[in-house]
Hints:
Layout: E1 4-5, H1 14-27, H2 35-48, E2 52-56, H3 59-69, E3 76-80, H4 86-93, E4 97-101, H5 112-115, E5 123-129, H6 138-148, E6 152-155, E7 163-164, E8 167-168, E9 175-179, E10 192-196, H7 199-209, H8 230-241, H9 243-261, E11 267-269, E12 276-277, E13 283-287, H10 290-302, E14 305-306, E15 308-309, H11 330-338, E16 339-342, H12 350-363
Parallel strand pairs: 1-14, 3-4, 3-5, 5-6, 6-9
Antiparallel strand pairs: 2-10, 7-8, 7-12, 9-10, 11-13, 13-16, 15-16
Amino acid sequence: MKRLEVNQTIIPEKKTLLHHWERVLESGKLTNNQVEVQSFEKELEVSCQRAHALAVSSGTMALQLLIRALDLPKGEIIVPAFSFVATASAPMWEGYKVILCDIDPKTLCIDPGKVEARISSDTRAILGVHVFGQPCAVDKLEVLGNQYGIPVIYDGAHAMGSMLHNKPLLAIGLASMTSLHTSKIVSSIEGGALFTDDASLHNRLFQMRYFGRNASNQDELLGTNAKMHEFSAAYGQLSLARLKEEVEARRQIAAQYDEAFLTIDGLDIFKESSNHYWNRAYYPIQVHHSVAMEQIMEQGEKQNIGFRPYWRPALQDLPYLNEESSRRYPVASFAANHTLCLPIYSSMNRNDVGRVIQCIIKAME
Protein backbone atom coordinates (compact mmCIF):
# COMPACT_ATOMS: atom_id res chain seq x y z
CA MET A 1 0.00 0.00 0.00
CA LYS A 2 1.60 3.23 -1.16
CA ARG A 3 2.34 6.02 1.30
CA LEU A 4 0.12 9.10 1.14
CA GLU A 5 1.67 12.30 2.46
CA VAL A 6 0.14 15.75 2.92
CA ASN A 7 2.11 17.04 -0.07
CA GLN A 8 3.75 15.38 -3.01
CA THR A 9 6.37 17.07 -5.14
CA ILE A 10 4.85 17.73 -8.55
CA ILE A 11 7.74 16.87 -10.85
CA PRO A 12 7.49 18.10 -14.47
CA GLU A 13 7.57 15.60 -17.31
CA LYS A 14 11.12 14.25 -17.31
CA LYS A 15 11.91 14.57 -21.02
CA THR A 16 10.72 18.18 -21.17
CA LEU A 17 12.56 19.11 -17.99
CA LEU A 18 15.84 17.61 -19.20
CA HIS A 19 15.45 19.43 -22.51
CA HIS A 20 15.16 22.75 -20.65
CA TRP A 21 18.13 21.94 -18.45
CA GLU A 22 20.23 20.87 -21.44
CA ARG A 23 19.44 24.21 -23.04
CA VAL A 24 20.77 25.97 -19.95
CA LEU A 25 23.96 23.90 -20.01
CA GLU A 26 24.49 24.57 -23.70
CA SER A 27 24.13 28.31 -23.12
CA GLY A 28 26.92 28.28 -20.54
CA LYS A 29 24.94 30.86 -18.55
CA LEU A 30 23.80 29.18 -15.37
CA THR A 31 22.98 32.11 -13.10
CA ASN A 32 22.99 35.93 -12.74
CA ASN A 33 19.53 36.74 -14.15
CA GLN A 34 19.77 35.00 -17.49
CA VAL A 35 17.10 33.92 -19.99
CA GLU A 36 15.28 31.34 -17.84
CA VAL A 37 14.94 33.61 -14.80
CA GLN A 38 13.73 36.50 -16.95
CA SER A 39 11.21 34.26 -18.72
CA PHE A 40 9.97 32.83 -15.42
CA GLU A 41 9.48 36.31 -13.97
CA LYS A 42 7.45 37.40 -17.00
CA GLU A 43 5.24 34.33 -16.69
CA LEU A 44 4.76 35.00 -12.97
CA GLU A 45 3.76 38.59 -13.74
CA VAL A 46 1.08 37.38 -16.16
CA SER A 47 -0.18 34.61 -13.87
CA CYS A 48 -0.37 36.86 -10.81
CA GLN A 49 -1.47 40.03 -12.64
CA ARG A 50 1.41 42.11 -11.30
CA ALA A 51 3.56 44.70 -13.01
CA HIS A 52 6.69 43.23 -11.46
CA ALA A 53 7.76 39.78 -10.26
CA LEU A 54 11.19 38.93 -8.89
CA ALA A 55 12.46 35.35 -8.55
CA VAL A 56 14.70 34.70 -5.55
CA SER A 57 16.41 31.83 -3.77
CA SER A 58 13.68 31.07 -1.18
CA GLY A 59 10.40 32.30 0.22
CA THR A 60 12.09 33.24 3.47
CA MET A 61 14.63 35.35 1.61
CA ALA A 62 11.79 36.96 -0.35
CA LEU A 63 10.17 38.05 2.90
CA GLN A 64 13.44 39.34 4.34
CA LEU A 65 14.23 41.30 1.19
CA LEU A 66 10.76 42.83 1.15
CA ILE A 67 11.00 43.98 4.77
CA ARG A 68 14.46 45.45 4.18
CA ALA A 69 13.47 47.12 0.90
CA LEU A 70 10.66 49.03 2.62
CA ASP A 71 13.45 50.89 4.45
CA LEU A 72 11.39 51.35 7.61
CA PRO A 73 12.81 52.60 10.93
CA LYS A 74 13.44 49.78 13.37
CA GLY A 75 10.44 48.97 15.51
CA GLU A 76 7.61 46.42 15.57
CA ILE A 77 5.95 44.31 12.90
CA ILE A 78 2.58 42.71 13.65
CA VAL A 79 2.24 39.08 12.51
CA PRO A 80 -0.33 36.33 13.12
CA ALA A 81 0.34 33.94 15.99
CA PHE A 82 -0.51 30.99 13.70
CA SER A 83 1.90 30.66 10.78
CA PHE A 84 5.12 29.02 9.67
CA VAL A 85 8.16 30.08 11.70
CA ALA A 86 9.60 32.16 8.83
CA THR A 87 6.74 34.65 9.22
CA ALA A 88 8.27 35.57 12.58
CA SER A 89 11.94 34.84 11.97
CA ALA A 90 12.23 36.95 8.79
CA PRO A 91 11.34 40.27 10.48
CA MET A 92 13.44 39.35 13.50
CA TRP A 93 16.41 38.58 11.25
CA GLU A 94 16.01 42.06 9.82
CA GLY A 95 16.12 43.60 13.30
CA TYR A 96 12.42 44.15 14.02
CA LYS A 97 10.47 43.11 17.08
CA VAL A 98 7.63 40.73 16.30
CA ILE A 99 4.25 41.54 17.83
CA LEU A 100 1.85 38.62 17.60
CA CYS A 101 -1.88 38.86 16.99
CA ASP A 102 -4.55 36.20 17.34
CA ILE A 103 -6.39 34.75 14.36
CA ASP A 104 -9.89 34.40 12.94
CA PRO A 105 -11.17 30.87 13.71
CA LYS A 106 -13.07 30.73 10.39
CA THR A 107 -10.03 31.34 8.18
CA LEU A 108 -7.03 30.77 10.52
CA CYS A 109 -5.69 34.10 9.22
CA ILE A 110 -4.85 37.18 11.29
CA ASP A 111 -7.95 38.69 12.92
CA PRO A 112 -8.25 42.34 11.81
CA GLY A 113 -10.52 43.03 14.77
CA LYS A 114 -7.59 42.28 17.08
CA VAL A 115 -4.86 43.96 15.04
CA GLU A 116 -5.75 47.50 16.07
CA ALA A 117 -5.18 46.72 19.76
CA ARG A 118 -1.63 45.60 18.89
CA ILE A 119 -0.73 48.80 17.03
CA SER A 120 1.56 51.19 18.91
CA SER A 121 3.74 54.18 18.16
CA ASP A 122 6.52 51.67 17.36
CA THR A 123 4.50 49.69 14.77
CA ARG A 124 6.23 49.77 11.39
CA ALA A 125 4.22 47.26 9.34
CA ILE A 126 1.43 44.69 9.38
CA LEU A 127 2.21 41.30 7.86
CA GLY A 128 -0.86 39.38 6.73
CA VAL A 129 -0.58 35.68 5.88
CA HIS A 130 -2.85 33.85 3.45
CA VAL A 131 -2.86 30.66 5.52
CA PHE A 132 -3.33 27.44 3.51
CA GLY A 133 -4.26 29.60 0.50
CA GLN A 134 -7.19 31.22 2.32
CA PRO A 135 -7.24 35.03 1.98
CA CYS A 136 -6.69 37.08 5.09
CA ALA A 137 -9.07 40.04 5.53
CA VAL A 138 -7.20 42.28 3.09
CA ASP A 139 -9.85 45.00 2.87
CA LYS A 140 -9.93 45.52 6.64
CA LEU A 141 -6.16 45.32 6.97
CA GLU A 142 -5.70 47.91 4.23
CA VAL A 143 -8.14 50.24 6.02
CA LEU A 144 -6.12 49.88 9.22
CA GLY A 145 -2.89 50.46 7.36
CA ASN A 146 -4.20 53.63 5.74
CA GLN A 147 -5.70 54.85 9.02
CA TYR A 148 -2.42 54.56 10.90
CA GLY A 149 -0.03 55.19 8.01
CA ILE A 150 1.43 51.68 8.28
CA PRO A 151 2.32 49.55 5.22
CA VAL A 152 0.55 46.20 4.92
CA ILE A 153 2.47 43.42 3.20
CA TYR A 154 1.47 39.84 2.52
CA ASP A 155 3.01 36.42 3.05
CA GLY A 156 1.46 34.36 0.28
CA ALA A 157 3.64 31.28 0.63
CA HIS A 158 0.54 29.12 0.01
CA ALA A 159 -1.33 31.52 -2.28
CA MET A 160 -0.36 30.68 -5.88
CA GLY A 161 -3.60 30.00 -7.77
CA SER A 162 -5.95 31.42 -5.13
CA MET A 163 -8.24 34.28 -6.14
CA LEU A 164 -10.26 36.93 -4.31
CA HIS A 165 -12.93 38.91 -6.17
CA ASN A 166 -11.61 37.30 -9.38
CA LYS A 167 -8.15 38.70 -8.71
CA PRO A 168 -5.07 36.67 -7.76
CA LEU A 169 -4.32 36.91 -4.05
CA LEU A 170 -0.72 37.72 -4.90
CA ALA A 171 -1.91 40.78 -6.87
CA ILE A 172 -3.32 42.45 -3.75
CA GLY A 173 -1.54 45.10 -1.71
CA LEU A 174 1.67 47.07 -2.00
CA ALA A 175 3.69 43.87 -2.18
CA SER A 176 3.43 40.15 -1.55
CA MET A 177 5.67 37.13 -1.69
CA THR A 178 5.31 33.42 -2.24
CA SER A 179 7.32 30.28 -1.65
CA LEU A 180 8.37 28.07 -4.54
CA HIS A 181 9.66 25.27 -2.33
CA THR A 182 9.23 21.73 -3.56
CA SER A 183 6.27 21.25 -1.20
CA LYS A 184 4.29 24.08 -2.84
CA ILE A 185 1.66 23.99 -5.55
CA VAL A 186 4.12 25.75 -7.89
CA SER A 187 7.76 24.87 -7.31
CA SER A 188 11.22 25.76 -8.50
CA ILE A 189 12.65 23.06 -6.18
CA GLU A 190 13.96 25.77 -3.84
CA GLY A 191 12.92 29.35 -4.42
CA GLY A 192 10.54 32.19 -3.84
CA ALA A 193 9.10 35.20 -5.62
CA LEU A 194 8.16 38.80 -4.86
CA PHE A 195 5.30 40.76 -6.45
CA THR A 196 4.58 44.49 -6.60
CA ASP A 197 3.22 47.15 -8.93
CA ASP A 198 5.57 49.75 -7.45
CA ALA A 199 8.48 50.30 -9.86
CA SER A 200 10.67 51.99 -7.25
CA LEU A 201 10.20 49.14 -4.76
CA HIS A 202 10.89 46.59 -7.49
CA ASN A 203 14.13 48.35 -8.41
CA ARG A 204 15.31 48.25 -4.80
CA LEU A 205 14.43 44.57 -4.52
CA PHE A 206 16.17 43.85 -7.84
CA GLN A 207 19.36 45.47 -6.60
CA MET A 208 19.24 43.93 -3.14
CA ARG A 209 18.89 40.47 -4.67
CA TYR A 210 22.22 40.93 -6.45
CA PHE A 211 24.59 42.40 -3.85
CA GLY A 212 23.03 45.87 -4.13
CA ARG A 213 24.30 46.46 -7.66
CA ASN A 214 22.38 48.61 -10.14
CA ALA A 215 21.69 47.94 -13.82
CA SER A 216 25.16 49.24 -14.67
CA ASN A 217 26.68 46.70 -12.27
CA GLN A 218 27.74 49.45 -9.88
CA ASP A 219 27.63 48.83 -6.12
CA GLU A 220 24.93 51.18 -4.88
CA LEU A 221 22.91 49.59 -2.02
CA LEU A 222 23.62 47.19 0.80
CA GLY A 223 22.53 43.91 -0.73
CA THR A 224 22.92 40.17 -0.51
CA ASN A 225 22.96 37.14 -2.77
CA ALA A 226 19.36 35.99 -3.19
CA LYS A 227 19.48 35.04 -6.86
CA MET A 228 17.58 32.12 -8.35
CA HIS A 229 19.69 30.09 -10.78
CA GLU A 230 18.65 29.10 -14.28
CA PHE A 231 17.90 25.43 -13.51
CA SER A 232 15.38 26.37 -10.83
CA ALA A 233 13.77 28.95 -13.09
CA ALA A 234 13.38 26.42 -15.91
CA TYR A 235 11.80 23.94 -13.48
CA GLY A 236 9.54 26.71 -12.17
CA GLN A 237 8.23 27.56 -15.62
CA LEU A 238 7.18 23.96 -16.21
CA SER A 239 5.56 23.80 -12.79
CA LEU A 240 3.70 27.08 -13.32
CA ALA A 241 2.35 25.81 -16.64
CA ARG A 242 0.46 23.09 -14.72
CA LEU A 243 -1.00 25.41 -12.08
CA LYS A 244 -4.59 25.52 -13.35
CA GLU A 245 -4.64 21.76 -13.90
CA GLU A 246 -3.21 21.12 -10.43
CA VAL A 247 -5.63 23.47 -8.70
CA GLU A 248 -8.67 21.99 -10.43
CA ALA A 249 -7.63 18.44 -9.49
CA ARG A 250 -7.17 19.47 -5.86
CA ARG A 251 -10.52 21.25 -5.80
CA GLN A 252 -12.23 18.08 -6.98
CA ILE A 253 -10.58 16.10 -4.18
CA ALA A 254 -11.51 18.80 -1.67
CA ALA A 255 -15.14 18.58 -2.76
CA GLN A 256 -15.12 14.85 -2.00
CA TYR A 257 -13.58 15.50 1.42
CA ASP A 258 -16.14 18.23 2.14
CA GLU A 259 -19.03 15.91 1.39
CA ALA A 260 -17.59 13.08 3.48
CA PHE A 261 -16.64 15.12 6.54
CA LEU A 262 -19.41 17.72 6.72
CA THR A 263 -21.56 15.83 9.21
CA ILE A 264 -18.88 14.13 11.35
CA ASP A 265 -19.24 15.13 14.98
CA GLY A 266 -16.11 16.56 16.58
CA LEU A 267 -14.54 17.62 13.28
CA ASP A 268 -14.78 20.92 11.40
CA ILE A 269 -13.93 21.70 7.79
CA PHE A 270 -13.15 25.13 6.34
CA LYS A 271 -15.53 26.57 3.78
CA GLU A 272 -14.66 28.59 0.71
CA SER A 273 -16.37 31.99 0.80
CA SER A 274 -18.49 33.13 -2.14
CA ASN A 275 -15.90 35.64 -3.38
CA HIS A 276 -12.91 33.33 -2.97
CA TYR A 277 -11.47 30.73 -5.33
CA TRP A 278 -9.36 28.49 -3.09
CA ASN A 279 -6.34 26.78 -4.66
CA ARG A 280 -6.55 23.98 -2.08
CA ALA A 281 -2.81 24.03 -1.61
CA TYR A 282 -3.71 22.27 1.64
CA TYR A 283 -6.82 20.64 3.06
CA PRO A 284 -7.01 21.46 6.78
CA ILE A 285 -9.50 20.02 9.24
CA GLN A 286 -9.95 20.98 12.86
CA VAL A 287 -10.46 18.21 15.40
CA HIS A 288 -12.20 19.23 18.62
CA HIS A 289 -10.46 16.87 21.02
CA SER A 290 -6.79 16.04 21.43
CA VAL A 291 -7.52 12.34 21.89
CA ALA A 292 -9.27 12.25 18.52
CA MET A 293 -6.30 14.04 16.93
CA GLU A 294 -3.97 11.34 18.15
CA GLN A 295 -6.39 8.62 17.03
CA ILE A 296 -6.46 10.03 13.51
CA MET A 297 -2.67 10.18 13.30
CA GLU A 298 -2.29 6.68 14.77
CA GLN A 299 -4.90 5.27 12.41
CA GLY A 300 -3.16 7.07 9.55
CA GLU A 301 0.15 5.40 10.32
CA LYS A 302 -1.57 2.01 10.34
CA GLN A 303 -3.00 2.81 6.91
CA ASN A 304 0.28 4.34 5.66
CA ILE A 305 -1.21 7.85 5.52
CA GLY A 306 0.79 10.78 6.89
CA PHE A 307 -1.58 13.29 8.44
CA ARG A 308 0.29 16.35 9.74
CA PRO A 309 -0.50 19.01 12.33
CA TYR A 310 0.11 22.56 11.05
CA TRP A 311 1.72 24.47 12.76
CA ARG A 312 2.62 23.11 16.15
CA PRO A 313 3.62 24.88 18.31
CA ALA A 314 2.01 28.28 17.76
CA LEU A 315 4.49 31.10 17.30
CA GLN A 316 4.18 32.40 20.87
CA ASP A 317 5.69 29.13 22.07
CA LEU A 318 8.88 29.47 20.04
CA PRO A 319 11.95 29.76 22.30
CA TYR A 320 13.15 32.99 20.67
CA LEU A 321 9.81 34.74 21.19
CA ASN A 322 9.98 34.54 24.97
CA GLU A 323 8.59 38.07 25.41
CA GLU A 324 5.38 36.84 23.81
CA SER A 325 5.06 33.58 25.73
CA SER A 326 3.22 35.20 28.63
CA ARG A 327 0.45 36.47 26.37
CA ARG A 328 -2.53 34.37 25.46
CA TYR A 329 -3.59 33.76 21.87
CA PRO A 330 -6.37 31.22 22.43
CA VAL A 331 -7.53 30.81 18.83
CA ALA A 332 -3.99 30.36 17.52
CA SER A 333 -3.17 27.96 20.35
CA PHE A 334 -6.24 25.87 19.59
CA ALA A 335 -5.44 25.86 15.88
CA ALA A 336 -1.86 24.75 16.52
CA ASN A 337 -3.00 21.83 18.64
CA HIS A 338 -6.13 20.78 16.75
CA THR A 339 -5.50 21.39 13.02
CA LEU A 340 -4.52 18.53 10.73
CA CYS A 341 -3.77 18.69 7.02
CA LEU A 342 -4.83 15.79 4.81
CA PRO A 343 -3.17 14.50 1.63
CA ILE A 344 -4.26 16.47 -1.43
CA TYR A 345 -2.53 16.58 -4.82
CA SER A 346 -3.36 15.81 -8.44
CA SER A 347 -1.78 12.37 -8.65
CA MET A 348 -4.14 10.97 -6.00
CA ASN A 349 -6.66 8.58 -7.54
CA ARG A 350 -10.16 7.70 -6.39
CA ASN A 351 -8.85 4.84 -4.27
CA ASP A 352 -6.34 7.14 -2.53
CA VAL A 353 -9.05 9.65 -1.68
CA GLY A 354 -11.29 6.85 -0.42
CA ARG A 355 -8.50 5.56 1.82
CA VAL A 356 -8.12 8.98 3.46
CA ILE A 357 -11.88 9.36 3.96
CA GLN A 358 -12.34 5.91 5.46
CA CYS A 359 -9.34 6.37 7.72
CA ILE A 360 -10.78 9.59 9.17
CA ILE A 361 -14.24 8.10 9.58
CA LYS A 362 -12.86 5.02 11.36
CA ALA A 363 -10.70 7.12 13.70
CA MET A 364 -13.66 9.34 14.62
CA GLU A 365 -16.05 6.49 15.41
